[in-house]
Specification:
Layout (H helix, E strand, L loop, with lengths): L14 H23 L3 E3 L13 H5 L4 E7 L2 E7 L4 E8 L6 E4 L6 E7 L3 E11 L2 E14 L5 E7 L4 E7 L4 E8 L5 E3 L8 E7 L3 E11 L4 E10 L4 E6 L4 E7 L4 E8 L2 E6 H6 L4 H5 L4 E5 L5 E9 L4 E10 L3 E9 L4
Length: 341
């Protein structure tokens, strides 16, 4: 009957002067458009340029960084070689709402890293800003296509928090799934026949506070990782003994606080609701004084063991017991016959 399961006001200009200024302005706008359209870069100049560092477009053109973008399936390798100290690097895909930062101020002149390529066809805009030319961001745009499907990885608690279910889906094919509890050794699973695109694994949760680490890898070598903190519980152990004199003794032990015990004896229902008694102002010591009831508690007063005695006159007894803790429960039942004296 024992069961344990793990669970983001100056003078006016003359009209001639006005015309001259207007004509000059139009020429400057046209010149700016030509500069913007030239090459794969666009250089934007802030109107409030400070008199320090790089102050003209011509100066900025001489220090263009070299930006190399190389795609490998759903990953994009980014290499940037600058001629000055880089202040920051940002990027945004055409379907992104905001820019994302690749590099913040670090004193470096170069950068190498990876970014994910979203599924489908998308345009990437990547910007490099020098520390001494903050008014002149260098921007490069390029379009990439990825037909890779992201690995779907889900981790959920089941069976009254005593087990974890790991679900992995990938239409390109799963290579392997590895998981480990805390700092334990990894368990690595390969898909069986028929599981190449979807796998499901179930593992027991160790008792107490734990962290589960899961890594799923598909046939392209793409990786999806997830870590989740969970608290492992254990079902209470429930037993009963009927003695020759008709004394029925119930035994319940648990690793979590026992909240209440319900039992049905020959159709009659009984309840020992410790949680309710304590909420009403009774103490654990008050409960220990109840005739026929013995409690075992820990240093903070949680009830971890219960023994309850009840007298029956029946020779044959139908008994069902349910014990509930903070996180789980256990129900056992059966027929008890009074032994001969």
């Amino acid at each position: 009957m024992n069961q344990i399961l793990s669970f983001e006001e100056k003078g006016r200009l003359s009209s001639h002067m006005k015309k001259t200024v207007k004509t000059f302005s139009l020429l400057m706008i046209a010149f700016g458009i030509i500069i913007t359209a030239e090459g794969g870069y666009s250089i934007a100049k802030n109107k409030k340029t400070k008199a320090e560092g790089i102050t003209t477009i011509e100066e900025a053109e001489k220090i263009k960084p070299e930006i190399s973008l190389e795609q490998n399936n759903s990953k994009l390798e980014v290499k940037i070689d600058g001629k000055e100290e880089i202040s920051n690097i940002t990027y945004r895909w055409s379907n992104d709402a905001d820019e994302k930062e690749l590099l913040a101020a670090s004193g470096r002149k170069s950068y190498t890293g990876e970014i994910d390529v979203p599924n489908g066809t998308n345009e990437l805009s990547i910007k490099v800003v020098y520390a001494n030319a903050k008014n002149f961001p260098f921007e490069q745009k390029q379009t990439f296509t990825s037909n890779s499907t992201k690995i779907k990885l889900a981790v959920v608690q089941i069976d009254q928090n005593m087990k974890m279910k790991i679900t992995v889906e990938d239409q390109t094919g799963i290579d392997n799934v590895a998981f480990r509890w805390n700092n334990d050794l990894e368990t690595i699973k390969k898909p069986e026949v028929g599981e190449e695109k979807e796998m499901e694994l179930i593992t027991d949760i160790p008792f107490g506070e734990n962290t589960l680490h899961v890594t799923a890898i598909n046939k392209f070598g793409e990786k999806s990782e997830k870590s989740q903190q969970v608290k492992g519980t254990a079902k209470p152990e429930v037993n009963a003994t009927l003695y020759a004199d008709g004394k029925l003794v119930l035994f319940v032990t648990a690793r979590d606080n026992i909240k209440n015990i319900e039992f049905t004896l020959n159709g009659e229902e009984f309840t020992l609701n410790f949680e309710e008694y304590l909420e009403q102002g009774y103490t654990v010591e008050d409960l220990k004084a109840v005739p026929g009831l013995t409690l075992e508690t820990n240093e903070v007063g949680k009830i971890l063991g219960v023994t309850y005695e009840y007298q029956t006159t029946e020779e044959t007894n139908e008994l069902e017991i349910t014990a509930m803790t903070e996180y789980t429960s256990q129900t056992v039942g059966g027929t008890l016959k009074r032994p001969a004296e």
